[in-house]
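Try it yourself: sequence plus adenosine-5'-diphosphate, in.
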Amino acid sequence: MEEIQLKVEKAYPIDLGRGIIRLDPTTLLKLQLSPGDIVEIRGKKKTTAKVWRADRQDWDQGLVRIDNFIRQNAGVSIGEKVTIRKVEAPEAKKLVLALPESMTQGGPELQFGEHANEIIKRHILKRPVFRGDIIPIINSMSQPMTESLTTSQVIPLVAVETEPSNTIVLITEATLIELRKKPVQGYEKATRGVTTYEDIGGLGEEIMRVREMIELPMKHPELFAHLNIEPPKGVILYGPPGTGKTLIAKAVANESGASFHYIAGPEIVGKFYGESEERLRKIFEEATQDAPSVIFIDEIDSIAPKRENVTGEVERRVVAQLLTLLDGMVERGQVVVIGATNRVDAIDPALRRPGRFDREIHIGVPDTKDRYEILQIHTRGMPIEGHAETEEAGEAEIGAGEAPERERKEKVDKYLMYLAERTQGFVGADLLALVQEAAMRCLRENLPDLDLEKDAIPPERLEKIIVTRKNFEDALME
Ligand code: ADP
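Structure, out:
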């Protein structure tokens, strides 16, 4: 059977959690695949995904696009290789799913909501699954699936058992889905944080630089040792608030399998005499024990402002402590401090000397294309009105049955592009607020007709709750 090795790249933002792999026409031809077919993906582990066509800019680059979850299922990161081959997947008679223990926060048994099975089934219908896979369920705003997980946007479930087993299976209407109450162990790292590169709109270049500076030295210290270059201890991300500095730091930590330690600058300096230094020291100590780690210092200018602006004794001592901690860090590359600030020239130059925060990356305001991506990210899993008027249907990619849904998606996409064009000057955080406001408006409209006395609103009713264009337009007028 023909197989092919390709380089892994991050998924398109809209693809997160959909269980698909994007392949270019050359690869499709070589492996005799059509969109909708199922492939086996082998890295350090084996997994599966459904085939979709790659966008034109990706053609003949020797790459595949898969999301964070498929990358974890295959045991690979961005830049590494996977082997792809076509497979036939028999129908799954049964699929047993469980939550990773790390997600249940110590609660021994999990209460799934009344309609959890149905919701999950709808999410994963027609998907291929291999035993051991993490299957992310994008939680739409409508219904919390479990009592303890109301706020999570993505819920990673683990396929602990399939029937038949030891083969890639396909979930169909006939598949019996069982939710195991006992959580599953061994997925701690997978669910440490669920912020991934797919959660970041735009900033492609910036992510690439952050990865080179942080992820690479963490994963391959031998490379840096071989070339006799020092990976950075500290990196400054600077740019306007709400542009994704925190988001990038979290994503790089998660994607590198590193722990994430957050320090809010203003909070540190607000402490009592001696407490600030102690707290800093504690966090650095924890991070060292927990290595590889990322320490993120938000608003670092409040801890270490330019000396001429420093008035208080506290600030002076906190800066001194931070410098001592940085200079004392020996495990180069395994612990990295990321500082975020709105203005890079607002921080103490002593901090920016070689061996300290000696790399700087500008995180700017998104352009139209970036805003479009950010809107796509934040409306993921949100039911949005397509448009009533009929337009020419696109080429059906995965069978006639899914064509209307595809058409709806295309229309939603067009509308998001239109919104992106009209939101010049909005940063990521503003776009998130816009989407949330539109959803709240939709909710308020629907509330009077809902029977809130019932324990759970039935899926048939939920399906009718759709965020309209008017909701977005009104939110935009705010
Ligand atoms: P900063 O640290 O630059 O002030 P954050 O990373 O805290 O900004 O952004 C706040 C929120 O706004 C994020 O959690 C995210 O939901 C959204 N956001 C900001 N920038 C982006 C982006 N580039 N892509 C997607 N979402 C973004």
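One thing you can check immediately is this: The CA atoms of residues 175 and 293 lie 41 Å apart.
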